[in-house]
Amino acid sequence: MWLILTSLMGESWSAQHHLARAMHIEGPTLTRHLDGLEEAGLVIRAREPHDRRAVRVELTDAGRAKHAELRQAVIAFNRRLTAGLGDAEVEELRGLLERLEQNVRSG
Predict the structure, then answer these.
(1) Are 33 and 24 in contact (CB under 8 A)?
(2) Fewer CB within 10 Å, N side or C side of the chain?
């Protein structure tokens, strides 16, 4: 939920498949998640008028409120996760994780 809501913050996606691609997940996987988010009133999906095959996804006011709530939980978790690490160590870890991600994507 967090990743989808964060991806939708500040923008709507002109096509649901663009959002799936940006999140590096398959379209059907995103569809299942969006079904639940839509049922909960957190997102809306609408057909694009100029291309009825494309589905636009946008956050609702409730979705933005849920994102703000989850953001606080993410910040608290991140503080707990990085407790005792200095800024240089966090940056080194971030760099190592980015390299691991690149390895996964290229393989």
Answers:
(1) no
(2) C
pTM: 0.78
The Cα–Cα gap between 59 and 70 comes to: 14
> Taking the domains of the chain in order of start, what are their residue ranges?
2-106
Distance CA 59, CA 10 (A): 9
What's the rounded Cα separation, in Å, for the pair 97 and 105? Answer: 12
CB atoms within 10 A of CB 69: 11
Find the distance separating the first CA and the last CA of the chain, reported in whole Å: 27
Task: Please give the Cα distance from 56 to 69 (Å, whole number).
Answer: 24
2-106: CATH number: 1.10.10.10
Block residue for tokens 């957190």: 42
Strands 51-59 and 43-48, bridge-based pairing: antiparallel
pLDDT digits (tens, 9 = 90+) for 17-61: 888 988 889 989 999 999 999 999 999 998 877 777 778 898 999
Tokens of 16: 């649901």
